[in-house]
Structures are given as structure tokens and as C-alpha cells.
Amino acid sequence: MRPSDRLFQIIQILRRSRRPLTAEAIAAELETSKRTIYRDISTLIGQRVPIRGEAGLGYVLEGGFDLPPLMLTSDEIEAAALGARWVQSRGDPALSRAAADLIAKLAAIVPERLRDVALAQTVTSVAVAGLVFGLG
Q1: DSSP per residue over 63-101, as a string?
Q2: 3-61 architecture in CATH?
Q3: CB neighbours of 114 closer than 8 A, spacing ≥ 6?
Q4: 8: helix, coil or strand?
């Protein structure tokens, strides 16, 4: 994995987690060393990515860090979230992680007032699609 890809992946891993993550956990997911993660986190902090970390607790991405805007219609968001939830529940580990990253990105771009509605419908839609179309 290229260093720039790994830096982006660290941001995505932290974005989708609601709890602090240790360097060990991040390293395991990215199949690299803890030392590399420490260096990468330091690089990200130097680039003004708001990562907070405490010894023994792990790292968190503080609120307010945004990806560049992406314009999607509500139907596109629902379609992407529906597909991602299905892949997340049935894909191999790498695809499941990619789907979780996509869902985190969607949650970041959907206006807060619509976030619960748009992403909550996805879970129901996946269940219904599995029953109606025999996807499960």
C-alpha cells in the first residue's frame, strides 16, 4: 500500500469508529507495524488533521474534519447506502471494511437533519431486499 493511501485509510478507520482505536488495532487492519502507524499519525497531525491520542487509550478523529464535498441526490445516497450495507454484511473482510468506509463517508455528507432518516432506511431496505429478491 502506498503511504498516501495508508494515510487516507487511517483517517477512514478513525472516521468510522466511535471509540478510540489503538495503534495496534489500526496496524492490524492495515497489515502494517505499530511503528508505521505512529509515524503516519504524526504525519497526519502535522498536516493539521485533528487526531487526538492518549497513551493506553488510542486515537480519535475529532469532529469538524471534512472530506471535500460530493454532490449526490437522495436516491443516489440511498442506493449507495443500501448496496454498502448489503456488502458489509455479506462481503469478505476487505470488502466489508470498504463498505463501512463508504457508509461513514455517506454519513459525513448527508445533512444532519436527514442523516438518521437516510441511513436508518438503509437497514430496513436491505432486509426487505433480501426477502423480496432472495438476496439472503
Answers
A1: TT--PPP----HHHHHHHHHHHHHHHHHS-HHHHHHHHH
A2: Orthogonal Bundle (1.10)
A3: 74
A4: helix
The CA distance from 116 to 111, in Å, is 10
Query: What whole-number distance in Å separates Cα of residue 15 and Cα of residue 10?
Result: 8
Q: Which residues contact 16 (CB under 8 A, 6 or more apart)?
A: 100, 101, 103, 104
Measure the CA–CA gap between 102 and 81, rounded to whole angstroms. Answer: 8
What is the residue extent of each domain of the chain?
3-61, 74-119
**Which tens digits make up the pLDDT trace of 80-132?**
888 998 999 998 899 999 998 888 888 877 777 667 666 665 544 444 444 44
